[in-house]
Amino acid sequence: MTDYRNGTLNQKSDAWFTPENGETIRTEIAVIGGGASGCMAAIGAAESGASVVVFDKNDRPARKICATGNGRCNLVNLYQDEKCWYTSSGVSVRERLASFSERDLLAFFEERGIWFHDRQGYVYPGTDQASVIADLLIREMNRLQVGVFSGTRVTGIEKDPSGAFRITVESVGGSDPGKEKNNRNRRKKENRRKNERNRNLQTGSVRAVPEHRICIADRVILCTGGLAGPVFGCGGDGYALAESLGHSLVPTVPALTPLICPEKALKMAAGVRCPAAITLICDGEETGAEQGELQITETAVSGIPVFQLSRLAGYALREGREVRVRADFLPGMPEEEWQKHVDLRLRDDRNQTLEQLFMGLVHPKLLRFILNRLGLVSEQKRAGVKTEQIRQVLQLMRGLDFEITDLAGYEKAQVTAGGIPLTETDPDTMESLACPGLYLAGELLDADGICGGYNLQWAMTGGLLAGRAAAGK
Ligand SMILES: Cc1cc2nc3c(=O)[nH]c(=O)nc-3n(C[C@H](O)[C@H](O)[C@H](O)COP(=O)(O)OP(=O)(O)OC[C@H]3O[C@@H](n4cnc5c(N)ncnc54)[C@H](O)[C@@H]3O)c2cc1C
User: Which residues line ligand 1 (CB under 6 A)?
Assistant: First the structure.
């Protein structure tokens, strides 16, 4: 048994390693999931003097962080408001973050050598590299002698009568191609051993070779994330683990994700990126509104304003409601100015094609798509088109509806909406109210932020607070 409580750390210089199959690990704190929240939880706990191990499914910790902000990592946002997070738990997410603000989080990294720049409140590492944040977290865990077990999946957690947690851990193949060969060889060896064991069990002659490692921990911090980004090891395992320890689950939907539009003609506008004011309409009722750059693909509407509305659309679709997105492609244009454009198009030269007539209002591909809705084409001469139809084209530019039938799914989502209710955790310590000694942090919980650094802030701050609190027990 490797006993981390006594500091007998057998650590490789690259900060993560794999113990022998069947080894039992004893530690004060086990962190399940080595993402943004898990790394911070481990650092918070280890800095407070606890012995800590981390289990993570990936071949290295903090993998998802490297993909954040298009590889640049939008860590926090200087604009903070209650409305920047959603939860159905009826509590204030912002208040939960109050004891360690966005400035404290930046200071945490600055003190350790990272500098930041801010783009209108959106804060990124100065080098614009997400990997520096991931590398710093790994370096800190290494410095603090946290035992990081990569390529391991926690499949069960039980609390025994003494209050300790018994955690079942199994190996998973890492996604590092270099390690694939080793993993294949290991799997072959394991299969050989398994066959041998089965033979031996039949004859009853030899003790079974254990297939799982066991970790005994005084406290557990569950940081397994949600379902968004399955390529980073997020498969919703944490929900089942938390439920097995007495928690409930707010139904989840993908969030910050494109919205699927079944209209075949959408491909006419594929590739368009343009400013737009977007309204989400569910069963005829305006449910949300956002403004920003709209992106159109062959099958979906996308871009930040759509992302922001996606969780609302997701829950509406889940309830079987009819969902539409309405786009105004001339957002914020004063009525007087718009009227001038309308008048110009209504009285303009009748020999022009429709493309020439509407030139300068919207992207030409978008114009084709709009005209197609009315059975018109860009090359058509104005002379053959009724004035009423010209009015309709102009109207659609200010309010074009897209039918939405689905979300692009967790593969494309940046975050998961829903999760373990916040009301089932202590607001100061993140400790479970259902299972003392268990702590929960990050995306696993029922809180999701809008675009702009709010999700990493929630995950990292929650992780750090949970780690410190767990170590203080
Ligand atoms: C492409 C993309 C870009 C993003 N950009 C931004 C951004 O710029 N700013 C921002 O604020 N947010 C961004 N986000 C969201 C943000 O990355 C997440 O909200 C945040 O990383 C959640 O942290 P977490 O620790 O809760 O979960 P995760 O980071 O998802 O980590 C969970 C970890 O748990 C591990 N795990 C799961 N189950 C098990 C198990 N059974 N056993 C062992 N390990 C397990 C997984 O391997 C994973 O490493 C982005 C997300 C994506 C997908």
Answer: 32-38, 55-58, 63-64, 67-69, 73-74, 153-154, 223-225, 228-229, 232-234, 237-238, 414-415, 442-444, 453-456, 459
